[in-house]
Amino acid sequence: MGELDFIEALRAFATHPAARGLADDAAVLGDLVLTHDSIAEGVHFLTDDPPESVGWKLVAVNLSDLAAKGAEPLAALMSATIAGDGKWEEAFLAGVAAACEAYRLPLVGGDTIALPFGAPRVLGLTAIGRGGPVVPSRGGARPGDRLWLVGTLGDAAAGLAVLKADARAEGILVEAYRRPVPLLAAGRLLAPHAHAMMDVSDGLLLDLARLTKASGCGARIDLDALPLTRAFIAERGGGRAARLFAATGGDDYALLAALASDLDPGLSLCLPSGAIFAAIGTITAHDGIELYDAAGDVPLPERLGYEHHRT
Amino acid sequence: MGELDFIEALRAFATHPAARGLADDAAVLGDLVLTHDSIAEGVHFLTDDPPESVGWKLVAVNLSDLAAKGAEPLAALMSATIAGDGKWEEAFLAGVAAACEAYRLPLVGGDTIALPFGAPRVLGLTAIGRGGPVVPSRGGARPGDRLWLVGTLGDAAAGLAVLKADARAEGILVEAYRRPVPLLAAGRLLAPHAHAMMDVSDGLLLDLARLTKASGCGARIDLDALPLTRAFIAERGGGRAARLFAATGGDDYALLAALASDLDPGLSLCLPSGAIFAAIGTITAHDGIELYDAAGDVPLPERLGYEHHRT
């Protein structure tokens, strides 16, 4: 039994409607939106990553799931392990505290386990939010919808690549990788209007494939429309290869929303000042994702993103 | 930084009232009761424990925290790791499913992580419940209150001792260790009347010390009144040593409640048919726990229970 079998076995008994088939960013129980993401040393972060950034990221990735459902954060419970002398954990906790403070997320409980020295750390957070009147799923996109992306793509993946070349590297891209920003305000504004919405955490194309699969449709994406930052373009350029890298990199924590074609969030919604957003494509009636740019159709890359088998 | 320092550091920013100072069985946020317990291989369970029982226990211990607050289970999110070939996890999941079914607990989400082969498994569950009109804390006991225990003591610890002598042992005591029963119905009935309530998971005397510390009082306990099963007495006897063993063993998942002295749950509350309960002592005005039995005062043992440093 591998991860996918395990998740299938979970689905067999996680049949409550709140579970949304274990195929959404979060569970939706009445007006509550519930999510849990765990991260493990050696899998989601490296031992020499700054522990503050691991703590920040644990909080931010869970808040990004709430953002994707338009939910307001209410509280969190943390599951932490302690391994070694505790210095790492002290710094980790400072990162958790900083993110909780930044997003006004009360930490209200959890559990702490001392693991044997050298065991990989496993850190988890359950975030609980209150949904608005509409909590969009991944499954409601309709042919003809426009696909909007809030946030930018590729910075985190570019930052990770920079770090792989030089573990002491710093800068905007490294920061994007280490300290993702959950787009809570944008998510709340988009949710009532979104036919489907999710956060882009594993790579745009992989997450889009999940959205279109859940919606029973396809999508056509304009690579030239993907929002890239100046820092990204300075590092990797803005051509087709760079854009494919950005579309498959992961760790973006942007929001992807399918909106009615006549709705322009720049005109109709008061997105937070400075929010970056772009129409990146359309939902199509037939299965599959098509890519194009100014030079014509672009073959879909073999690897669409980073699979980490969330349940 | 050890576990206790870590928890102190958590307390410094977990200041929201819902956190209850990270000193209760659960967080209480509006009408929600929230708890998260994680268990780790080699710490809370052994590699050769039957994985079904580990899955059952993960669910049951969290439900016991809800029972201690009189809450009705609403949903759970699970954090699971996969290590090795997945056979262990398949059986573990069957135990989770059985407990969720037995207590009508919908599993609505979570996360799955594949760990490197040989890494200790870390498994967590967040349980969310709805509290009644009163959600008792550990801190409301008053001098003169009677202390009631619902459930029995010592079976699980006796079962663990049996298993340590013979890993293939079976029987009622081993079952009590492996498949604890959360006392949800009793908890709901007691909660509106309890000045203080908690579940006994780490040993009666240790948990009682937490309750009296939180309440700013002490307690006097009649060892002869502790409810023991026939199976326990058959294995370890019913004398003072056996009763001290039962009072410090842990893994009981009984409920400990401080009730007004004139309230007898056997007369006033419709406890579930067959529920075992006993008045085991009284709350005193002065600090400290005193023990006695028919032969006189009994010195407090040095070890009051099993410390596993829950936050």
Strands, helices and their partners?
Two copies of one chain form a homodimer.
Chain A: H1 3-13, E1 27-29, E2 32-40, H2 51-68, E3 72-82, H3 87-102, E4 107-114, E5 122-130, E6 146-150, H4 155-165, H5 172-178, H6 184-190, E7 196-200, H7 204-215, E8 218-222, H8 230-236, H9 240-248, E9 254-259, H10 265-268, E10 277-284, E11 288-293, E12 296-298
Description:
The structure is a homodimer of 311-residue chains. In chain A, 33% of the residues lie in helices and 25% in strands. Chain A folds into two domains: 3-130, PurM-like, N-terminal domain (60s Ribosomal Protein L30, Chain: A), CATH 3.30.1330.10; 146-298, Alpha-Beta Complex (Phosphoribosyl-aminoimidazole Synthetase, Chain A, domain 2). The first copy, chain A, has 311 residues and is an alpha+beta fold. In chain A, the strands form two sheets. In chain A, strands 7-9-6-10-8-11-12 form a seven-stranded mixed β-sheet, with helices on both faces. In chain A, strands 1-2-5-3-4 form a five-stranded mixed β-sheet, covered by helices on one side. In chain A, helix 3 (87-102) links the parallel strand 3 (72-82) and strand 4 (107-114). The model of chain A has no long low-confidence stretch (mean pLDDT 94). At the A-B interface, helix 1, strand 2, strand 3, helix 3 and strand 4 of A face helix 1, strand 2, strand 3, helix 3 and strand 4 of B.
